[in-house]
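S.,

Sequence below, as promised.
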Amino acid sequence: MRRAGPEILCGLVSVTVFLLFWEAASTPGAWQLTEVIPPPSTVLRRWSELLWSPDYWRSWTVTTSRVLVGFAIAVVLGVALGLLMAVNRTLYGIAFPTFEVLRPIPPLAWVPASIIFWPTQELSITFVIFLGAFTTMVINVLGGARAIDLRYFQAARSMGSGAWDIFRRITFPGTVPSILVGAEVGMGITWAIVVAGEMIAGGGASLSGTAGGLGYFIWTSYVGSSFPDIIVGMFSIGIGGFLSSAALRAIGKLATPYLRQR
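The prediction came back faster than expected:
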């Protein structure tokens, strides 16, 4: 807690320096480096206008709901598969080779196939988001379970503990920190993927007459050559990812009070 003050001050200073440099580099004058990127003052004026636009907030709602749904499914299935492979050697031998073959495929490479496979674009985008967080969750859970000291298991077995007792008292609690790390990393990936998915798939919901998400908002801003809107959409994605990661860190502190927090 004593470090919170200096950390916040350093963060404010870095943001201020960045904005000042951006303003100087994009404003006509001796320091101008680019004529394409609008200065932050222009972006802030446009952002203040968009804050009163229902379509902007509907885009926020659509993208956030997609992220949360895909992420929640990925956490549930990823934790389950990771733990099952960690405690069952037979399942590990069957599932892990296939998982390792599919894992290096970028989630965005699944977009064309998912559009063909799933009946709606909404399901296609959600599926791609799920893939982005799912592989991260499985790898982190599996690695966390395997990193637990074997002496804990040996001691438990020597005292007559069964498989279920070992799982609920050693394996799962010992894997919780890895689950939280995987969730935080996976959340960041989902925000990056949802934007690209909405751009490629055309927004999904936009076809039905409603907002198509922040990714679709950025794409339509690009098509309309509205550069301030593009930057507003980019920073909106950054804010969404930051708030999501902060929420997960707060949940992690509550779920693991036994860990030393720096």
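The CA atoms of residues 40 and 124 lie 35 Å apart.

Coffee later?
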